[in-house]
Structures are given as C-alpha cells and as structure tokens.
Amino acid sequence: MRSPFLSALVVVALAASPAFGDTVKLKNGDVLTGKVVSVLGGKVVLLTDAAGEIKIDVAQVESLSTDAPITVALPGGATFSGKAAMGAGGNITVEGEGVGPQSVALATAEINKPAKPPREWTGSIVGAATFTRGNTYTNTVSIDVDAENRGEIDRLTFLAFYRAGRQKDQATGITSTSERRVGLGLKYDYFFAEKAYWYANINAEKNAVAAIDLRFVAGAGVGWQFIEDDSTKLSAEAGASWFVENYSDATPTVDDMAARAALHFDHKFNDVHSMFDDTEVLKVFNGPRDYLVRTKGGFRQAFTPSFFSQEWVEYYWDSTPATGKKRQDVTYYLGIGWTF
C-alpha cells in the first residue's frame, strides 16, 4: 500500500516542470523526475524543481537513470563512474569508463558518496607569564601545546609543556630557580568497536625542582569513549606501563611496571565557556605505597573562534618523592591561548 506521504511527494514531483533529467521509477509504477543527488544509508535523495530534496527508501525503488555520470562505490571497495540506465528489481545499469555496462544493486551500492575530509591536526597553544618587580623579584613562564589528529577508527594525541620560574632574594641578591619542568607525551588510540579502543602511550618529563632528572612512562591498555560529540567528550582508560624515575640526587632509581588508570573530560557549556579535566593515576609495583597522581583541570573562555583565556590547576602527588622533597605540588595558572 502506498503511504500518503509518498503519494504527496509523487504528486508534487510529477507536477513540477522537468528542470532536471534524472528519473526514479518506483515499484508501484510511479515515476519521479529530478536530479539524483545520492544513494546512501538506504535512501535515494532526489532534488526536484518544486519540492526540493526528497528522500525515498531504496526498498521502494525499482530502478533509476541519470543524464550525467554518477560515482558508484561497491561493497568490496571498488569505485567507478558512468551514466546510470534503467534496470529492474532494484538494480541499475552503469556504463563505466573502460569497464563496460555493469549491473549495480541499489540496496548495497553507494552513489555519489561525499569524499572524506582530509585528516588534520586540531588543538591549542596556551601561554602564561608573570613578572614582578618591587618587594619581590620573580619571573615565571609556561607554555602548553595540546594537539589531536582524529580519524574514523583511530586518534593520535600530542602533548608538550614547559614551566620555568626564577626568584631573587632582595636582601642577598641571590637568584634561585622556583620551577623548571618540561614534558612531552604521545598517545595512539585504535577503535576496535564504536566506543572501545586500544591505546599506547609514551610520556617523558623532567622536573629540576623536584630533583627528577627523568620520569619516563610507556604503556598500553584499553579505553572506553563514553561520550564524543560537539559539546562533550568523556573517556576512561586502564592498562599497564613501564615506569622509570631517575633522580638528580642520591635517591635510588625506580624502574618497574605500573598499573595505570586515567579519565579525560571536556565539556562546552556554550560557544564561550568550557571546562576540561585530565586525571591519571599510576600504581608502581616498586613498593606497596608507590603512587603517582597527576591532574590538570580548569576553565576556558573564548574571545573569538581562535583566541581564548584559560584558568587551570595542576596537581601532582608522588608518594615516594626524592629525598627531602614534598609529596605534592599544586600550581595555579592564568593564560591566553590560540586554537588551530
């Protein structure tokens, strides 16, 4: 039985003047004229002169023909172009260049599928600095780079940061380092299911004030992407890592396996305001109480599509710090950034 909605579309399409020369024949005998835009996801999209674009279930289409070449993608991955001629039983005949006439099933083929956009890096660069003169004399600077390259089934993430701070004792004139940290990180995610993925990551960091000459972590595991849309991203990960911590003093080097758990969260409240949080916990097997916790979270306000301000907090908790050093470090930042 013909649906009332489809009948109305047929009447409108038949009443329109044939500005386009493509033809769609339905299994109930009706014929529609217009411009075949695509056949994707079980729908034939037809552009008509009077009704605009209309979508027709492939199951209701007997066949179609086109005045101009179309691009056909077969289930096996082969593609070719040519004009479509009427077939029967949901098939069309395409005269492909150099391949001769081919019968194509509309139910399984894709016609005029849009080309995939090229993969590109997106991310941000954030800088912050303070210079104090008077009763105190301090200079601090920080730079953060966060970039991501997302494909259909994989994702590559690059992170880098630099922190430096110097302060002068006004009474003695002696200048000392209050902060000096630098780090790099690289992570690859491969989605073996819609929300589940394998990951592999490498991180290296140097923290002169904490007497850490090199902290190196390399690992792999599994993650779950709970949400990933234009406003919210939420994922969690668990895996195993190789953990190395070399100190610049006499503290013994740590070189052992570790269990890793991580949580990543981003949310845009609107076009201006957003927030983020990245938390990672490492349980090093070197000792029963050897843990490392790293958290970076804050807020962002967009001035323009490219420029923004950002306030964030970084928290480190190392249960086994270098000799004479404290377990935790908390730093507050206010910076300006650029997105790309």
Report on this model:
The chain is mainly β. The protein is built from one helix and 22 strands. The protein folds into two domains: about 5-110, no CATH class; about 120-340, monomeric porin ompg (Porin, Beta Barrel). The relative contact order is 0.08. The strands form three sheets. It has a twelve-stranded antiparallel barrel with strand order 11-12-13-14-15-16-17-18-19-20-21-22. The protein has a five-stranded antiparallel sheet with strand order 4-3-2-1-5. The longest helix is centred in the N-terminal third of the chain and has 12 residues, at about 5-15. The chain is elongated, with a radius of gyration of 30 Å.
Would you kindly provide a brief summary of this structure?
The chain has 340 residues and is mostly beta strands. It has two domains: 108 residues, no CATH class; 219 residues, Porin, CATH 2.40.160.40.
How far apart are the first and last residues' alpha carbons, in Å? 53 Å
Derived structural class: mainly beta
Sheet with the most strands: spatial strand order: 11-12-13-14-15-16-17-18-19-20-21-22
Biggest sheet details: 12 strands, antiparallel, barrel
Q: How many separate structural domains? A: 2
The low-pLDDT segments are 9-17
CA-based gyration radius: 30 Å
So what's the CATH class of the largest domain? Mainly Beta
> How much helical structure, as a percent, in the residues?
under 10%
CATH architecture of the largest domain: Beta Barrel
